[in-house]
Write a structure and sequence with these properties.
By secondary structure, the chain is of the alpha+beta class. It has 16 helices and 11 strands. The protein has a 6-stranded mixed sheet with strand order 1-2-6-3-5-4, with helices on both faces.
């Protein structure tokens, strides 16, 4: 089957556009991806990229506060935004007749969001409450995406808390917001994606109409976030007042997601071999046969795969009983990785994992919102939105030898181990003895 039609072009102000027509349902998705995320925020302003995402919903040049919400919802649509390590996205999904409305809304806030002291103060409070809900007052909050990076990484962009510290959030100023917008929220630093039921010629004309007069500003020079690999096992510890059981997060550096796609995909398949389903190796050994843990998972990326440039993180997370020592869990993990490094998985084991991946990718991209966001993210990160449609085949081509090589790279002397200790007085120390 041929890949669905994609039309890609750039308008005069530098805005890159991806059009993905699909007339199977009378709906349309619109997204804008800006090339700025957690890793781009300035030191001393942790959480600023996410805070700014909130501000982009607080009114714009032509619209008062909450008007964006009203215009989308009155059209029968949905909307949202999210902040990632290397990009921030915004989207709407609406009936196809409302395409122009969505394009107007995105262009209007790309041109001039309403940055006021009142909006800033209000959204700082909203973000702080979000952090309380999702991190501070939740068992295993921030595990592992906030807590593991400062153990594995040493530079501010890679190691800091992307949700933000309260002190940094409270010190954010309108001047900070204006500078951030001027630097990163230019059309030359963004990708607009339109997917669904529309005519290409009509969409092009509407895009020129609404985005064509957004002033050009040069895209910022994107810095490298590279840093040396660990030269020994790194350790961190966190007391969690809400956690009922101890936990571990083990983090490893992965191949470059952009420039070594094959190596990256091999790690994704390795994650499936290790923990995907009851028949996977770590589930069989650590959950069913021994058992040592109550929950285990492995994966690429702190949020998921294909959401960051280099460096990216392979994680294995474990929740285990008090009486089981972390040393015993780590020893079992290392034994299973050594087995895979020595003997590649067989064809049947590989096919089981890659078939699940392919089914998951096809299922995700059947949803218009997921497809729209994936096309925009891949155009931004890889310069090639069509890679979205080739991923399943590339995943199926991963060999047992490539998975074996990925397992061999996950060495104890080049990883970070984060220990979560319950802080309720019922925890255990590293040897499984009661505290």
């Amino acid at each position: 089957m041929a890949d669905p039609e994609l039309v890609r072009f750039t308008i005069d102000n530098g805005l890159r556009v991806v059009l993905a027509p699909d007339a199977t349902a009378p709906v349309v998705g619109v997204s804008v991806h800006y090339d700025v995320g957690f890793r781009s925020e300035p030191e001393g302003r942790t959480g600023f990229a996410h805070l700014f995402e909130h501000l982009m919903f607080q009114g714009s040049e032509s619209l008062e506060k909450l008007a964006h919400f009203r215009h989308v919802q009155s059209s029968g649509g949905t909307f949202n935004g999210s902040t990632h390590p290397d990009y921030t996205d915004y989207f709407e999904v609406l009936p196809s007749a409302a395409l122009e409305r969505a394009l107007f809304l995105e262009a209007d806030r790309m041109r001039a969001p309403k940055l006021t002291k009142e909006n800033l103060a209000n959204q700082i409070d909203v973000v702080k409450e979000e952090i309380r809900l999702n991190v501070l007052n939740r068992p295993y909050g921030g595990f592992p995406w906030i807590l593991l990076p400062p153990v594995l990484y040493s530079t501010f962009p890679n190691a800091h808390n992307g949700y933000g510290g309260f002190e940094d959030l409270e010190q954010a100023t309108i001047e900070d917001c204006a500078a951030f917008f001027d630097t990163y929220y230019s059309p030359a630093n963004a990708v607009l994606t339109v997917a669904g039921d529309f005519e290409v010629g009509t969409a092009r004309a509407l895009i020129e109409k609404h985005f064509g007069d957004v002033p050009h500003r040069p895209a910022p020079v994107r810095p490298s976030f590279a840093e040396p690999l660990p030269t020994g096992e790194l350790h961190g510890e966190h007391l969690d007042p809400h956690a009922p059981l101890p936990a571990l997060a083990v983090g490893y550096r992965m191949p470059d997601p952009i420039n070594d796609v094959e190596g990256y995909l091999a790690h994704l398949v390795l994650a499936g071999v290790l923990t995907d389903g009851d028949g996977s190796r770590l589930q069989q050994r650590l959950v069913h046969r021994e058992p040592l843990v109550v929950d285990i998972g492995a994966g690429a990326g702190l949020f998921g795969p294909f959401e960051a440039r280099d460096p990216d993180t392979f994680t294995i997370t474990v929740i285990h009983p008090h009486e089981v020592s972390r040393e015993r869990v780590l020893a079992a993990l290392d034994e299973e990785l050594e087995k895979l490094a020595a003997t590649p998985p067989g064809e049947q084991e590989l096919k089981k994992v890659t078939a699940r991946w392919a089914a998951s990718l096809h299922s995700e991209h059947d949803r218009l919102v997921s497809r729209t966001l994936a096309l925009g993210a891949f155009e931004l990160l890889y310069g090639d939105a069509s890679l979205v449609y080739r991923l399943a085949d590339q995943m199926s081509a991963v060999t047992g030898e490539a998975v074996s090589a990925a397992a061999k790279a996950l060495r104890p002397d080049a990883r970070a181990v984060l220990v979560i200790k319950p802080a309720n007085g019922n925890g255990a120390n590293g040897n499984g003895e009661q505290q």
